[in-house]
Design goal:
There is one protein chain. The protein is 37% helix and 20% strand. It is an alpha/beta fold and 133 residues long. The chain has one domain (3-129): 3-Layer(aba) Sandwich (Rossmann fold), CATH 3.40.50. A five-stranded parallel β-sheet has the order 3-2-1-4-5, sandwiched between helices. The longest helix is centred in the N-terminal third of the chain and has 12 residues, at 15-26. InterPro entries: Archaeal_FAD_synthase, Cyt_trans-like, Rossmann-like_a/b/a_fold.
Length: 133
């Protein structure tokens, strides 16, 4: 069985997230999704949903087999049993670079998953910020 690991925040869950999860699952048999527990608030935004709520959303998706939490991507790749690390093109900061290096050194496949054009959590935040609700 080929296990796939992917990671994300999943706060404003949208079609792009669903597409990433479905594509990640398609490269293996078992999908593990690590949801970011951003205790340090490195994204600099106020989350709409708690970690537990975001994990619940993700666990409800049909293609997801397991949901875990993580704080740093370079650490979670060393703690989870997986064969393929699926990631998005925007997931490239220093901790991702360390995670990629660890994967290469330990025989893990790396698969970049395309973004869904026109949608992102940042875009949703921008739209909501400009609305009078």
């Amino acid at each position: 069985m080929k296990k796939v690991l992917t990671v994300g925040v999943f706060d404003f869950f949208h079609i792009g997230h669903l597409n990433v999860l479905r594509t990640a699952k398609s490269v293996g048999d078992y999908l593990i999704v690590a949801v970011h527990d951003d205790k340090q608030n490195s994204k600099g935004v106020k989350f709409l949903y708690s970690l537990e709520e975001r994990m619940y959303f993700v666990s409800s998706i049909k293609c997801v087999d397991e949901v875990i939490k993580y704080e740093r991507v370079d650490e979670i790749v060393q703690k989870v049993d997986f064969d393929v690390f699926a990631f998005g093109p925007d997931q490239n900061h220093q901790y991702f670079q360390l995670a990629f290096d660890w994967c290469r050194e330990n025989g893990k496949d790396l698969v970049m998953v395309d973004r869904t054009e026109g949608i992102s959590s940042t875009r949703i935040r921008e739209i909501l910020a400009n609305k009078s609700i």
